[in-house]
User: What shape does this take?
Amino acid sequence: METVAKIAVKKTEDEKAERVMTAQAVAQAALKIQVSNLNFYYGSYQALHDVSLRILSNKITALIGPSGCGKSTFLRALNRMSETLRGTRATGEILLGQEDVFAMDVVTLRRRVGMVFQKPNPFPKSIFDNVAYGPRINGLAHGTSLADLVEASLRRAALWDEVKDHLRKSAYALSGGQQQRLCIARALAVNPEVLLLDEPCSALDPIATAKIEELLYALTDTCTIVIVTHNMQQAARVSEHTGFFLMGKLIEFNETSLLFKKPACKETEDYITGRFG
Amino acid sequence: MSFRRFVALLGSIVGATLIVIVAFLALYAWPAVRLNGFAFLTDNNWNLGSLYANPITVHGQQIMPGAHYGILFLIVGTLLSTMIALLIAVPVGVGAAMFLAEGVSPMIRTWISLFVELLAAIPSVVYGLWGYVVVIPFLGHHLFPFLVEHLGFIPFFGGAAGSGYGLLTCGFVLALMIVPLITATLRDALVSQAASLHEGALALGASRFEAQWGVLLPAVRRVLIGSSILATGRALGETMAVLMISGNALNYLPSNIYAPISTMASFIVSQLDSALTDPTGMAVRSLAEVALVLCVISIIVNGFARLLLYYEGRQSAGVM
Assistant: This one.
């Protein structure tokens, strides 16, 4: 909570006390992911500067900021998806529970830390096979137990009732919102501890967006959720904690209600009140 | 004339060419078709007859005495050599395309791809000569005896190893000629697949191979089918290289995979000279009938491919 502590110094005594209490509450709750001094480079370009952040278990954490601020890069560092690009490099430490993410087997890591992308990316397979893909390649289930797992995952993604009679249909026959929920079901099928969502609603209409937001809250019973969003109302609606990124730096991180009501930094205030970004 | 009409005219000329060629071929071969009947496809006997005797009249057609035209051995040779070529080329082509799309850096991909494409640009006679000089001695002296000895228990793998000219040699060389077609097309399709599919698979804990095999390859099924059909067309019609390495079997059905064969395309070339000595002209007309059969087989293969793609497309669109 280095950042929060730094910020606290700038504020009045009252607010300082309030923020220290928040910091303590954060420290006491179960930590899921602890990021310390993360720097990230695309070739010679540094996209993240010394980011430190704690993500709490079974909570929704939102990351906001203008385009190109590094929030997606940060998210993709958490399951090392960033490594799929050539010439990237990261320094610092990311702990998943107690384990060092950079030292883990990447396949195990990505099974434990699932991801949903900005544009729905269903595979060119049937609805069933899309959800069954993860369990199959990871050898988690087959036969009836696989069918049960697929059903359970689709139910959790609030899609089961809409597709239960068409499981053999191509996933491409679904609407955009359904496809995105299918992608969430697909990610859930390998039973991840953490679910990363990279602007999951940016390609969806408001009704489809509302459905996904509803379902995210229900998922926190088993998952820790980190969501990158352009939409500040969305961050305010769904998350318990919010981090504000600007030009590769984590400017402010706090409980969502505090961050939106009483931002500690000028930049945060300017951004959330719409002065730029 | 408006540009639109001009382009429409050009387009119809291209389309009409096919019809004109097939129609001409059919017209020219028609006397042979009537003479040979259905037995042309099922008889295993190509015989020009006694060329120095006087022509006789059969079914109202003048032919040389003893002349008989049956090309079962050509059909079998053509289809089997193409099948073997595909059995070798499709797995190799898919593997190479996956390697080029995912296994190497873009720079190396560009270079290797260049070589793959150049492989497709080599004239087939060069493949033939290379097959004749290099492949046949190696296969005939080393590989075939080895296969007979160790895999002889498998049907069609045993028996006489032969001289190196024959079915399997044709399969190998044809495979080499069509691999670039499959690899180049499939590589482009794989590379152009949305990176999001690849990422989606990786994010579920798939290895790079699993992502390629389980997600990207199914996404380009249509391209794979399409390029395989193109490759089939090339293998069916390949003339020069096959002529040089097939052993040019006449009236002989292969008893194992090493046996000499002949294919329709190469047979037309190899027999045209002697067929022209037939004063009745029936031999050349029968060769034209061979060409007609080859055309029809190619059209059937193409039609089958289109049917396959049509059902594929319906599935992908979720109609089923």
